[in-house]
Amino acid sequence: MKVLAIVPSFFGPTGDAVNERQLLIELARKIERCYVITFVGFKQVFTKRRAELKIPLPKNMVLIPLPLPQIPILLFYLPLIFSCLMSIISLILDKLKKIDLIYIRSSSLSMGFLTFDSLARKTIVKIPAIIEDEISNDKGMKFFMEWSASILDRLALAKARKIAVDSKLLYYEIVKRRCFTHKDGPLEMPAGIDLRKIQNILRNNKPPRKTNEPVIGFLGSLFWWQGVDILVRSVALVRNRIPVRLLIIGDGPQRSTVENLCRRLNVPYEITGYLPHEKALQRLIEADILVIPSRRISTRETKIPNKIVEAWSLGVPVITTKHKVFEYFNIKEDQEAVFCEPTPNSVANAILKVLENEVLRERLIKFGLQKAKAFTYNEISKRILSELLF
Questions:
Q1: Cα separations (Å) of 237 from 144, 231, 245, 356?
Q2: How far is CA 10 from the centre of its chain?
Q3: Which of 57, 288, 333, 368 is most buried, taking the most CB atoms under 10 A from its CB?
Q4: How much is the pTM?
Q5: Residue 122 and residue 160: Cα distance in Å, rounded?
Q6: Which CATH class for the 2-192+376-389 domain?
């Protein structure tokens, strides 16, 4: 069994890269051969960041990294050209019976493959988000991206063998916004955990001794919709009662804004910058609570982030905005998570609630560990391979 996977990001510490990397490594363990084509930035090729490209991979995984300028508009449109060129090569491989299934993350990378019926019949396209909703201020760019993404998403819905999404909630939102549906139901592929990695981290990293200064943690890229500015303001409120400190594991466009806000509000903080995935999880164990006060956009409402599943698996209690997806996956209030609204007062009250109630903290840890078992890449990879049976 041979699979060709085409993903925009495979290396690096971002959530998208971590998700695809762990999924495809697990998938490779179950098949004869897995070909992976991905993009890398010039900094990853020509600077010290090239260390990010040195990742242990299964012997049956063939990885082809293609340098691409890390410019947002180019990251959206150059893949269209690449997709057309790669589809011609794939047609030749298909004739030689070298590919049984094609997995593509994002509609923009699938266009060339969906042009040919013989390839479209083998292609699973994952639509990870409604892309225009993640653009906040640039109305011109938002309109342009919505127009382009709408055409590409409709092509995927019309031609792909299967549409993969993080949850059916996202699929229903895509259908509503694109005014088009797929002939079959979607393939659900939420973010998950690599149990081998989690077990290794827990085995080799003892949780630090908790002090009188609890650590409020955040893990992820610093984008506007993550609500890290809300978290900083909430920690400032909590510090009126408890001397907590803030640990931000990650980096991103809002870093300077967050740092300035921490200094202005006198919030003790550490921003680690981007870390390799395993090191990021090692730091996450230091947190007394993981807090994700993300704003309400379609992507956040319809998918569970990796970091929440990872926190569950590591025994770190979770506070998060009460998005629709948690009800969909039967995540219960005060059991697997404490819910809040993306406002400083609501987040601060949730933090105090967890810090001041040891019974609640233990319950969150217990049920979080149980829930994490439902989100493993072992199970998700099996869902992809099941497509070969039909």
A1: 40, 10, 12, 15
A2: 12
A3: 368
A4: 0.86
A5: 8
A6: alpha beta
Contacting residues for 171 by C-beta, under 8 A, at least 6 apart: 127, 163, 165, 186
**Domain map of the chain by residue range?**
2-192+376-389, 198-372
Token digits for 225?
């919709």
Do 110 and 156 form a contact (C-beta atoms < 8 A)?
yes
Q: What is the pLDDT along the chain (390 residues), one digit of tens a residue?
A: 889 999 988 887 788 888 999 999 999 999 999 999 988 876 666 555 556 667 888 899 998 888 776 555 566 667 777 887 888 877 777 776 778 899 999 898 898 899 888 899 999 999 998 888 877 776 777 777 788 889 999 999 999 999 999 999 999 999 999 998 898 889 999 988 888 889 888 888 766 656 678 999 999 999 999 999 999 999 999 999 999 999 999 999 999 999 999 999 999 999 999 898 889 999 999 999 999 999 998 888 999 989 999 999 999 999 999 999 999 999 999 999 999 999 999 999 999 999 999 999 999 999 999 999 889 998 888 888 887 655
Report yes or no: 219 and 318 within 8 Å, Cβ to Cβ.
no
Domain made up of 198-372: CATH architecture: 3-Layer(aba) Sandwich (3.40)
